[in-house]
Each structure stands twice: as C-alpha cells, then as structure tokens.
Amino acid sequence: LSGPQQSLPGAVELHQPGEQHGPDRDVDADPQGVGAADDFEQAGLGELFDKTHAAVGFAPGLPVVVDVEEFERRLDELERRLRSEPRSVGIDELTAAVDSYGGDLLAGHYDEWILDPRQKVRERWLAALGVLVRKNRAATDYESALRHALSLVVAEPLSEEWHREVMRLYH
What is the DSSP letter of 25? Predict the structure, then answer.
C-alpha cells in the first residue's frame, strides 16, 4: 500500500512491486483503473473499499478514524474547558492531546489548498504545547516543562519566547 501519488484528499492507490504508477503510467492500457479494483481483492482489502470501474472509496459504514479530526476534537474539548474552568484540564489529558499530534498535516504535499489547514493544525498543537509547558511549570514539574519547551524550540527554532523559557527552566 502506498500513499497517494496526487494530492487528493482521501486518495489511496495500491501498487504491485515493479508496477508503473504516477504521471508516467500508461493510462491507455487501463483507462478506467479496473486493474486497481482487482488489486484490492488480491491484497485482501476488498471488504474495506467500495470500488467501481471509475472510483475507489472507503466502504459505506466502515468506521474510519482520521488522526487530525481526533486531535482537533480533543483540543476543542480541552480549549472549551480551559476557557470556562482552567483548573478542570489536567496535565495528563493535555499531554495525551499534545502527544496525539501526528506531525504536519499531509507532510510532503505542498499544494496550495493544504497549506492553510496544515498551518492551523500546527498552530493549535504549538499553543497546546505552550499551555502544557506553563501547567507543568506551575505544578513544579520542571523536567516535563523543559522537555515540552525543548519540543517547542525544535518546532519553532526562531521563537525567542521558547528559547527564554528553556533557559529559565535550566536555571
């Protein structure tokens, strides 16, 4: 199973070793992609996908978990609680939300449509990480605060704020 060869949301392609794919593929040989549907069956993935000669998608009713949606759902809940009662958000659940960030959204794809959503998700992760640094420091868990502040420095190396925070935590 390989990732999408084009930047299309939800696109998945199956390729056999040595099979030609991508923009140089001979579409005249299989213009409707019928061979791809057979690949799903041979790979034992037939029940996961709804396939026709023109399209392939996830089977209806299949529970699909999208990591970005899960991350944002967790943050939405925590942000709501932080606004109403900041002490109601524990360090452990904030850590779990921050740790569920799987990295930049569709990293390696640079089409214009993905840049803004990628940046928004990343900024939410950075903000949550910053809250986590402050909560750990307030709880005098300086080791955890330092670990998360260092993650912020790695993610945002030009941020003076987080460099200063790292220096304070080392002191």
Answer: S
